[in-house]
């Protein structure tokens, strides 16, 4: 098991964003986290990446409790994420964005950088060539020198994935990667995520595009109002009455509506 | 021939330009992580007073004084940098401005040590000390056809020029490395930078301390070039002046504050009649720049345009494969 969430709770003041959510992700699988808007999916991402600390509960990554660890150390341990609303470094080129992603896998400091020591130049060379490989991998081969701000929307999404992959994660968190994409882009994204899985990276995916989620995921957990209402394979989830109710509303509610 | 060209007055102005360029670089470094610090006048004062007092009271060599002043300023940078980590934008500016004032007030009131508002005079002069040392080895500026005075100012100018070029080279190299990318990432999006595995606490304090070190260094040089310092040299006016270098020249690239410092130091000297109104002009510059060109005169686009022009010209002259800049 790569990741285990044990009874995670998160309250914001009196509001309970997540309560008693537990699930675990096996190595190498694509795990989907779905649910209506405001169900607490992104909050869960923020707990896993330690942007927030859980009110109670435990988050176990590779047998280590990672509660309360600083976000940059989480990345170093091997968890990296993308953002729902793209957060690239706008004035940097695509290549530089990915190179930033390799920060925690490199170590040159001030003095080796200023005196351009042999190991620093080698490392810089390695970072740059890996960045270009990753750009190639996500299909942005010719865009290394383009400022990320002027890339098309779908390209920015893929660049964010490349940047996250640059930190060599074991677990990749994707927050609505298909949001705002057209059908062609979505199908490209499908193949990209499959390719990432083939590289041995475990993927945790938040997504609203149900056809994509059902095709892509090995297992799925469903959140509603901060609680887990179902977990299982895509087929099980599709036939789960609680899930259908959460997404479509129950018949009784419809009567009174 | 050479001797006639060397005018001590011009050299002195040039030396102040160089010190101001170093100060401009100091604010640029902290700004390159998105932190606006107005404490650099205070750090400059710490560097200047430390070095002056050590050389005056303990007869230490100037170089030891300068290094101690620089390090102490850097230490204060770390001490201020850590508690202000959570502050951003205008709040950080206010706190750091307050810190600068506290430092100035300490200089004014710690009379037993700093002689208060009167200031310290008779600080060993970098150029003269150098000349005296060289004379012990039997050197005479007349060998170069220079008078003592000319030699002194020329020596200061050359030392400062070397120092300034080294500092700029240092930070240009740092910028184009892992450290520089971390700085830029923090400036552009702190949360995203943190998620990409960058230890933002470390890099923000590092930038703050580097800014303080460089400002303290400039202050120590200032003390030994002018041979006289008083608390007024490191007051609010100085903080604003350093800020203007970055606002006017720009803070996206290191050449911005360098150009700002150069232009704004030369201007009052060339246009003598406006030097009385310089603070009014500074205010105008801030307002106009904020309205018209908030990134400052020199930004990445301007630099690229200049590089393009330079390379075109070179192509015309047929030496096209020289590396630019």
TrEMBL record, chain A:
Gene3D superfamilies: P-loop containing nucleotide triphosphate hydrolases. GO terms for molecular function: ATP binding; ATP hydrolysis activity; L-isoleucine transmembrane transporter activity; L-phenylalanine transmembrane transporter activity; L-valine transmembrane transporter activity. SMART domains: AAA (SM00382). It holds the Pfam family ABC_tran. Residues 3-250 form the ABC transporter domain. InterPro entries: AAA+_ATPase, ABC_AA/LPS_Transport, ABC_transporter-like_ATP-bd, ABC_transporter-like_CS, BCA_ABC_TP_C, P-loop_NTPase. One of its GO terms (cellular component) is plasma membrane. The keyword Transport applies. GO terms for biological process: D-alanine transmembrane transport; L-alanine transport; L-isoleucine import across plasma membrane; L-valine import across plasma membrane. Keywords: ATP-binding, Nucleotide-binding, Transport. PANTHER family: AMINO ACID ABC TRANSPORTER ATP-BINDING PROTEIN (PTHR45772:SF7), CONSERVED COMPONENT OF ABC TRANSPORTER FOR NATURAL AMINO ACIDS-RELATED (PTHR45772). This is ABC transporter ATP-binding protein.
């Amino acid at each position: 098991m790569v990741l285990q969430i044990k009874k995670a709770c998160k309250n914001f003041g009196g509001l309970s964003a997540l309560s008693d959510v537990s699930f675990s992700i096996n190595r190498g699988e694509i795990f989907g986290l779905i649910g209506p808007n405001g169900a607490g999916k992104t909050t869960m991402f923020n707990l896993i990446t330690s942007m927030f600390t859980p009110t109670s509960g435990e988050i176990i990554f590779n047998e280590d409790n990672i509660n309360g660890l600083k976000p940059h150390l989480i990345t170093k341990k091997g968890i990296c994420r993308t953002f729902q609303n793209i957060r690239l470094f706008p004035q940097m080129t695509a290549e530089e964005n990915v190179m930033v992603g390799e920060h925690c896998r490199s170590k040159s400091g001030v003095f080796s950088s200023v005196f351009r020591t042999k190991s620093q130049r080698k490392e810089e060379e390695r970072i740059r060539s890996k960045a270009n490989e990753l750009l190639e991998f996500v299909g942005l081969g010719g865009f290394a020198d383009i400022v990320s701000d002027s890339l098309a929307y779908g390209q920015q999404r893929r660049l964010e994935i490349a940047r996250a992959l640059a930190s060599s994660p074991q677990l990749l968190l994707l927050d609505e990667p298909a949001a705002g994409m057209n059908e062609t882009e979505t199908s490209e994204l499908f193949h990209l995520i499959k390719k990432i899985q083939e590289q041995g990276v475990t993927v945790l995916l938040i997504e609203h595009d149900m056809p994509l989620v059902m095709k892509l995921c090995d297992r799925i957990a469903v959140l509603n109002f901060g609680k887990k209402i179902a977990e299982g394979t895509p087929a099980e989830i599709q036939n789960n009455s609680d899930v259908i109710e959460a997404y479509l509303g129950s018949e009784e509610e419809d009567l009174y509506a | 021939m050479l001797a006639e060209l060397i005018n001590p007055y011009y050299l002195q102005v040039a030396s102040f330009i160089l010190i101001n360029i170093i100060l401009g670089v100091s604010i640029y470094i902290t700004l390159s992580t998105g932190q606006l610090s107005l404490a650099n006048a205070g750090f400059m004062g710490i560097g200047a007073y430390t070095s002056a007092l050590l050389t005056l009271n303990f007869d230490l060599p100037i170089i030891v004084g300068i290094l101690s002043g620089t390090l102490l300023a850097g230490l204060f940078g770390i001490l201020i940098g850590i508690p202000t980590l959570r502050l951003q934008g205008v709040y950080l500016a206010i706190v750091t401005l307050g810190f600068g004032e506290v430092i100035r007030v300490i200089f004014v009131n710690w009379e037993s040590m700093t002689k208060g508002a009167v200031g310290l005079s008779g600080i060993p002069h970098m150029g003269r000390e150098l000349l005296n040392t060289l004379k012990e080895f039997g050197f005479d500026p007349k060998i170069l056809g220079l008078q003592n005075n000319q030699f002194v100012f020329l020596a200061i100018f050359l030392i400062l020029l070397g120092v300034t070029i080294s500092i700029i080279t240092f930070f240009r190299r740092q910028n184009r490395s892992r450290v520089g990318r971390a700085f830029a990432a923090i400036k552009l999006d702190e949360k995203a930078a943190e998620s990409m595995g960058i230890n933002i606490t470390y890099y923000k304090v590092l930038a703050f301390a580097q800014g303080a070190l460089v400002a303290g260094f400039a202050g120590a040089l200032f003390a030994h070039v002018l041979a006289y310092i008083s608390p007024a040299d490191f007051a609010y006016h100085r903080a604003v002046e350093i800020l203007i270098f970055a606002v006017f020249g720009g803070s996206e690239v290191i050449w911005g504050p360098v150009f700002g410092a150069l232009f704004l130091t030369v201007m009052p000297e060339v246009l003598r009649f406006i030097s009385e109104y310089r603070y009014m002009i500074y205010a105008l510059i801030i307002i106009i720049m904020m309205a018209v060109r908030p990134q400052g005169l020199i930004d990445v686009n301007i630099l690229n345009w200049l590089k393009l022009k330079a390379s075109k010209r070179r192509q015309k002259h047929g030496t096209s494969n020289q590396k630019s800049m």
